[in-house]
Amino acid sequence: MDENREKHQADGSGVSLEHTLAAVEGVGRELNAVTSTMGDRARTLARKSAQRVAAGESVRSLEGVPFAIKDVIDVAGFPTTMGSKVSSGPDPSTTSPVMNLLEGAGALPVAKTNCQEYSYGILGDESAFGRVVNPVDPRLCTGGSSSGSAALVAAGVVPLALGTDTAGSVRVPAACQGVIGFKPTFGTVPTEGVFPLSPSFDTVGLFARDLALIADAFTVISRDQSRTFDARGASTRAGTPTVDLSLLNPADESSAQALTWVERHLGKSALASATSANFERLTELIDRGIDFYDIVRRYEAYVLHKQFLDHQGEQYQPGVWAKILAGQDITEAAYQSNIASLEELRAAAASFFDDVDFIITPAIDGEVTAWDELGPGSAAKFMRYSLPFNVLGWPAVTLPIGAVFDRSSWKTHVDSPSATTPRAKPASVQIVGAPHSDEKLLEFAAGL
């Protein structure tokens, strides 16, 4: 078990856990990242963990690791608010499989986290609880929809957090807040007990600062738990892996920064060969997929929410309600046609990896935007590089490559958000792998 995880584990006295719970109530609340705390549940599990260890039982892969849960994921005994005033039914009486799996591996749930209402929005600007504060700089957009989970990891409150990703809702807030965000292959992680946005694209994802921890957690929550992770890095085929750089345009600011990182990390260590020969095919796949995504997502979201149309429409955040209504005129025939085309695209697109192992892109288009600089095109820029891989269903991880959060100074900026001291903005790259190559993707990223 690596040192980065050991320091977060609760020992027999519960000291580390109590420190985490205090941080949840302190820092977590100040960041507006917490919707409910789970201290009693975590303490009960920690006692059972200590009893297992005392009895000589083997240490589980996530023993004593505190984690947070996006508040669209059911935990029995706790409300699932979806960041909304809308009532979508009684509080859950059962716990989602993904939560059960993490707890079964020894992880300790400490909080549910604030999020974009019903996960419908990439900016993180609309929640019934208000916006989450970006620990990097309160003036910067957090990204969404899993804003609070990213913030608790970024602020060092928890080492691990769950989010959901339909168009980038794990990877974008990770990039905006300077942590690692991982979206597994579509369908790899159970989504039962997770309130959907668009089931054709929804994926449960992970936040952390440590790739090995993400790999361990993914092994636990994925449907195939027989995998191993090599933190030294690995290739998907014999010899040196090939990395496609087609989506990195040197004339684009975010691409230029990513290219500098690629040259430093791939060139210096000779970890991979690079190609940009697949631009036309890759952009064709992306362009086709985005058209399908628009129809399918709007239809599915509207069907999920139309039951609340007559009686609770005024309870939604205005922008979220407008997005929901945008699906009301899509016919079932149009939806079914696009679903069929989407399945055909996913099947055909897998051959892209016949000659390529990984793709590297910027995480977002441009730099992280300040709240007061958001405009009509901001959401599209945030999703430009993340959304296509939800459509295709491929696994993707975002890694910080620029300035990262200094935990010792965030409180000053929260207390004085108008401070004029310039701060470097976080920057990240996205690495994409073939469908069901999740472990190899994480191993490759760990070797960089």
TrEMBL record:
Domain Amidase: 17-442
Domain of life per record: Bacteria
Protein name per UniProt: Amidase
Species of provenance: Brevibacterium picturae
Pfam (any one): Amidase
